[in-house]
Amino acid sequence: MKFALFLGCNIPVRLKQYETASRGVLRELGVELVDIAEFNCCGYPLRNIDLKAFVLSSARNLALAERENLNMITLCKCGYGTLRMAEHLMKEDASLRKEVNAILAKEGLKYKADIQVKHLLTVLFNDVGIEAIKEKIARPYENLKIATHYGCHALRPSNIVQFDDPVNPSLFDQLVEVTGAESVDWPTKLDCCGGPLLGTNDELSLDFTEKKLADARRAGAQYLTTGCTFCQVQFDTVQKMMAIEKGTNHHVPSILYPQLLGLCMGIDKNVLGLDSNKIDITGIESFLAQEPLAESS
Predict the structure, then answer these.
(1) Looking at the domain 2-120, which fold is it?
(2) pTM of whole model > 0.85?
(3) For residue 48, what pLDDT is reported?
(4) ∠110-154-9 over CA atoms, to 5°?
(5) CB atoms within 10 A of CB 203
């Protein structure tokens, strides 16, 4: 399996551990990643300002991956949803596709709709598979309860992103449980993290976040796991900020899924970037089985 890795804008600057942990996990699972230096912003910031500029930005990334004849894998669910939306708009609007391709042609590029955009979690679930992941688990978690946060851009609009059932998703829960951890059911599991409102309506943004953290804690979760750049920043960086500035501490550290998976696969915690999270998550190591699994004959 080989994919063009789309990192987007924020991961290299704000969440480098998401990249290193994902690379480490995918390497162990036999997934080859190709870096395309010309990749640019997915276009999301322009989505509600200039539709054509937004689509052009996404289309250029898609065309670059098509040039290499590679499907794309994204780590950010915002980037995933944006690229999927741009694909949809160009397939539905021939005149828009023609206009975008006329601009791309100046760089020798063309969008032909020949590739697929996938998220890290869908690649792990559909392409690698639960059984293949299970074979790589060295020390499963024991008595660890995790709250999965799916994120908005992966689930809606469901007919376009096609990530999972938007009402009753299970993909992420199954990926958590393959590690030996228990995925707990919690009331606000599918609600927004509050991230999109930060900087616009901080009070409402923090209310969203605080409610989710409180619900996860009441459901028995010891950690929360994400597969999205902005959601992780909200539940890690912003949660720590809330604890300092507001005195609210629900003690639900957020761990990126490749960090959670990589640790029980035996990948070095420096590769996983455990120390890079704002809230200490190294305590999760105490939930690993004391003895490695015996190798199957």
Answers:
(1) Glutathione S-transferase Yfyf (Class Pi); Chain A, domain 2 (1.20.1050)
(2) yes
(3) 86
(4) 60
(5) 7
